[in-house]
Amino acid sequence: MKNILIIEDEILIQQSLKKLFERRGFIVDVSASGKLAIDYILNKNYDRIICDLMLQDISGFDVIEESKKRFSPSEIGSKFVIMTAYNSPQVLSRANAYQCKLLNKPFDNLEEALRIMTE
Amino acid sequence: MENQFYTSHQENSEQLVIYLDPEVKGDFEQSLPKNITYTDDEKAKIAIHKKANRLWAVFPDGSHCDFPYYQKNLLAIIQGLSAHFGKSDLSLSFDSFTKTAELTEKKLFSGASLSPEDNVKDLWDEIIKKVNVISAQSQSLRSLMEKLLEVPFLQNFQSSIVLIHLKGTTKAELLGTIWRSEKTQGLIEVKEFNTFFNSIKKSKIKSFLSDSFPNLELPFNGSFLAKEVISRKYSLVALVSRHDFLNYSKDEIDLFETCISLLQPHFERLIDQEYSDKRTSELRVCLKDFPLPLRISDNSTGTYFLNDLFQSELQEKDIFFNKKINKSFSIDLYDSDELRHYAFDLFHFQRISLLGELLNTLRHELSNPLFGLKLGSQLFSFMETSKDNKDLMSEIEKNITRCQAIIENFSNLYQVETETKPVAIKKVIDESITLSKSESREVRKSIHFLSGCDEIKVELPMIFMVQILFNLIVNASQSLKGLSSQKMITINIEADDKFVFVDVLDNGPGIPPEKQSELFKPFFTTKTQGTGLGLVLSRNLALKMGGNLEYLPNEQKGAHFRLTLPRP
Hints:
heterodimer; A: alpha/beta; Rossmann fold; globular; B: alpha+beta; Beta-Lactamase
């Protein structure tokens, strides 16, 4: 695993995560916009896509839906990690439907969260 | 049958001479007792006249009696005269006559069923009269049904029952009299009632057998007469029975139908009245529990009803006591302590829910930036930088964590929860102290749990308890302002089997005895900037939880409030 895309509109979170991953030797792209992120996903190759759900333009789920153009459902399940501060039952069930990992913001334990995101 | 009256007076040879009005003479030709002869002389000792539809009998002493005119009445008068005359030589008097005539009349009307030969038409006057009397006397459907059996041709019937279904209700009702005196009542499924009603309606003969309706469980056995009545508000079947298995004659059927038709407006009136009684009492129950102090007043009669919370017994002046509500009544909220309490309650809940919304928004809006800040500060721990910088960053991180915790706690606290979970009393007190920290910063707090009390759990809304204790601690802290000696709040917790007692004491100036009774009144405050609502709200919340909040006179200096909370 080498290439990571972080989709997060809170710049402080986005940049901090970027730096944390880069320190661990990953190559990181970032996007604050969902639409720009879709562009990246369809045209570049990422091993892992870390996606916030509440973006300014579209939702994280929309990004995943668009990614289906390129990836199979099982690829989506393994590539995407969803980050959210609102873990309502609806969000949980949708994330389960995509079979992808879900991380609650704020992280209870940073090291643990980083490990899950790069596994 | 009529001949039975003409048997016993033949030995008496003396003749009684009476004048008989030519109009009625024709009705009475064939059968006259042998001891009576007519005369056309109006001055006869005894005269029987017909005036309009009434019979007048005038006696030698000048007294007279009158009856509605029909053949049987005429027969009764003459028979009475004859019987009396046979037994006494004294001149006839009105009093002695009427006794005999009444007896005869009773025989005539109750002795036997009507036979086809009887002139039924003659009975109608009497029936109409009787129906009017009983309907005027009846104040309930039940008494009307009971009195129905007094109507002449029904006097040898045993049961009189009515089945009613008020439209829109789920059960039909049966009520009436059996065996002439026993009360009966019951409920019937609407389906059964409808089947019964339709059978009665479709039948041409209107004479039935109780066995034909096994599902109805009528309270007697035998044949019965029935008649249905329908109106906008109800369907009804009235029935009468002799408790035998004989068929009823055409005349009896006709008379019964006429009778019920005559009673229809009275059914309407009585059902209306009883139904509105029910409605009134239901309205009363609703209003009694309505959570705002309402006054219903009827300006025309001056009656009113207060759904007073603490005394809801019926009073003389109560509008529901005399069950009369005119159309002109008005409902208003009245000014009272309760209204104020409730208004504050409302005010309190509005404030809480507003605060809840606000906190939710704040939580959502702040949690992301705080998270960013935290990640950013954590980044420093991985960086090559001086120890001073790292310490500073770790301090920033700690503060961010605290902010997150506060936001989390606040929004949890102000969520209006419908379910209550068991919570340790210790946690409630800790939470209240944390929240009141800004006000009580300089005050020393000592908390004492009496043996094992810190383990005690209560099952009450956290938000209520914290709000009360928060108020008490803030009040105490404010009263301690300006105190030069060590400021001190003591919280003692003890419990018995039923309650937990939380005592909040301070070493401030306390409440002067003359003001203690004012403490829990709205707008009472000793502070320059208080609303005077805090303690009112707090006590209301405590009462709502089944507990209480009171001021205990303190032997030492300072205030002493006791919060009582029920244990699960």
